[in-house]
Specification:
The chain is mainly alpha-helical. It folds into 2 domains: about 60 residues; about 70 residues, no CATH class. Helix 2 packs across helix 3, helix 2 crosses helix 5 and helix 4 crosses helix 5. The radius of gyration is 29 Å and the shape is elongated.
């Protein structure tokens, strides 16, 4: 009796296989459509961000009060870019960064605050990032 039940179950599974294959193919197609839509949305968002950055740069690249470029704990963007450039690959090493900042008269605490602050401003305002890149390349 167990063998007949197994054969019946196998027959049912074989009969259901085409439907399962169709369902799997439909799910795969839906997943591809969703991925394409997400990529299109991401590209559109990136293009909008670039357009906003270009508009900000064309408008002078600062907020109305210029706060994006004000020094952080006494460290200007120019100083920050110059020290980052001098560090090169050593920028990830806090001891090297503190030593380079110290040589420029900047305390480790002020350097750490400036690093965090300038990084945040570069993420939030592309004009700051563009100016940093220009200073870094020139320095």
């Amino acid at each position: 009796m167990g063998m007949f039940k197994q054969m019946k179950d196998m027959k049912n599974m074989v009969e259901q296989a085409p439907d399962m294959i169709n369902q799997a193919q439909q799910l795969g197609a839906q997943a591809q459509e969703m991925q394409a839509a997400q990529q299109a949305a991401a590209m559109q968002a990136q293009q909008q961000a670039m357009a906003n950055a270009n508009a900000a740069a064309a408008a002078g690249g600062t907020t109305a009060d210029g706060a994006d470029f004000s020094p952080i704990n006494g460290v200007t963007l120019e100083q920050y870019a110059s020290i980052c450039k001098s560090l090169g690959a050593g920028a990830a090493d806090p001891a090297q960064a503190h030593a380079a900042a110290g040589a420029a008269g900047i305390s480790p605490e002020d350097w750490d605050a400036a690093t965090a602050g300038w990084g945040q401003r570069m993420q939030g305002g592309t004009a700051v990032g563009q100016k940093f890149n220009a200073l870094y390349q020139a320095g």
